[in-house]
User: What shape does this take?
Amino acid sequence: MKILFYSALFGLLSLVSCQQNTSTQTQNTMNNPLLETWSTPYGAPPFSKIKIEHFEPAFTEAIKIKNANIESIVNNSETPNFENTIVALENADSLLDRMSYVFFNLVGTNQNDSLKKVEDIVKPQLTKSNDDVYLNEKLFQRVKSVFDHQADFKLDGEQIMLLKKIYDGFVRGGALLSAEDKTKLRAVNEKLSNLELQFSSNVLAETNAFELLIEDTAQLSGLPASVREAAAIEAKEKGKEGKWVFTLKYPSIWPFMTYSNNRELREKLHKAYIHRGDNNNANDNKKVVAEMANLQLEKANLLGFKSYADYVLDENMAKTPAKVYELLNQLMLTALPNAKKEAEVLQAEIKKTGGDFKLEHWDWWYYANKVKQSHYALDDEALKPYFKLENVRDGAFAVATKLYGITFTEMATVDKYHPEMTAFEVKEADGSLVGLLYTDFFPRDSKRSGAWMTEFRPESKVNGKRIAPIISIVCNFTKPTSNEPSLLSMEEVETLFHEFGHALHGLLGNTTYRTLSGTSVARDFVELPSQIMENWAAEPEVIKSYAKHYKTGESIPDSLITKMSAAGKFNQGFVTVEYLAAALLDMDWHSINVPNTLTTSDFETKSLQKMGLIPEIVVRYRSTYFSHIWGGGYEAGYYGYIWAAILDSDAFASFKQKGLYDQTTAKAFRDHVLSQGGTQEPMSLYVKFKGAEPSIDALLIKRGLK
Assistant: This one.
């Protein structure tokens, strides 16, 4: 029973009110594809048949069915056992789970005003539904009975893990609280869910509201032709043909920050980016953030924890805030001096090129690229013709084929929620079905920013038969133009491999219970399968296999690969520090143990000063648009990327030592990491793969910090 699924997805929602006609609800319930069995290829969602008006009545009906299933468990006269209580609970919300995957994935990728209106109704219903389960005293007593007597049931390891996860979920959901405190917890959860909606809505509105309109070609100086054309297309789509529009979305802002010779416009664009949610307007998030932090503390205290970080980390690999701070501070002490040296190099580059000003945060990307050109004879723009999106995607597929024997075949007949989607049938070497993979690569106003892997159906088994997963990769890469296909930067190449690594974690799951399947693991372990794939993306042998010039078809020359390798460790101080600053800011917000009385701005300033962040570097995510940690599922968990980086660097060292595609190592990684989901403790799985716990040395060497 994936109770935690909803809370992880609520960070995507927006807050809008809505009214529905009762007679319409009844009609939609009777003829509602969300409530029917899907006779589609692989049981994939029939997107073309699903209408927005179907969702609200379908959720209402699915919650009724879930409640009836819960009542059947509670009122069962048989002595509680694993099957009649734990497995029954696991399956109680299967219909609700199925439509929730569809709904929340559409919210993140295909948002519109009508869908927003449904969100405000659905969110409180699901929050209440979760609380109704966790705070159901009779239901908990049955779960507790099975937990207390588990030795009597001769459970296997996966069953024990499912029982533990469900029992812990009840305890962490407030099952042991007094009646008075349960009421308080319900109120806190409801307030938090609404604030998360508001936060997400504000970030999306702020991102979409800003545009840098350019009418004078002189202001395009330094920008590559492909960047100009993309801005012209953006302008045309906004009804401003003949002009150029740059936005705060990834494929627009960062090429501008890297190549534009206009320092004033770089400043304007970057300041707009870092002030999202901090403009003292209707979309301001400062009070929202402050209130959420205090509500999270109140929730943690109700559940017996000193801070919200203690509450979150109790079920992660790190276990305690002290251990996370120890790691982050150790890395900051190593990385910050490197970043300061890099700032000196950039300042020298400014002087060398005739500038007479101090390096500022809006200069970093521009002059880092200048240094790459002057010191390493490498221009990122020169790489992009070799990184055609489709070639990179196929390169990632080829790596998976060589490692695990699986194949990817495009499926034109599968229903899609957007024309830009592509679907792939994934099979084992023997032809048996692994699952279905969707890809959705390009930005649009209806899609939130960033890149992520998600699922429309997790892997599981029913009566011993494997239910194939339906997995999706969602990104925001530069769109094709009239003259060029979608060409990626090296950073975007790594992003594609990263999300594909998450997809493999979901696709190759081999568990019985969906609650434990695929990426249903600790937050500081979930990034291992994704980040280890980035290592293959940068390997010369692999690069040459997929990096083909989009015009000539020629492989990327060895000279460019050599330059990439030489420049690979440059700017790693900056990259590491801006990330660590965000991870420490996250921990500071969620480690408060008394209600915070500072304004959000003052709290953030104090946090950044404490860590010694230099003014030339801005924290990767400021508090007011840090969607990861305000309803995005990474509260007190953003450190997980660097925690997993230790694991992935250490793990990939085994492949480097034995061979990039060594079958014994690949099988061990698949058998002990990718297929196991959350069926065992993460460190136990890692040790079974590697034979020992990880060392930090491989990461420090990889980043040039040692």
Notes: The first strand starts at residue 212 and ends at 214.
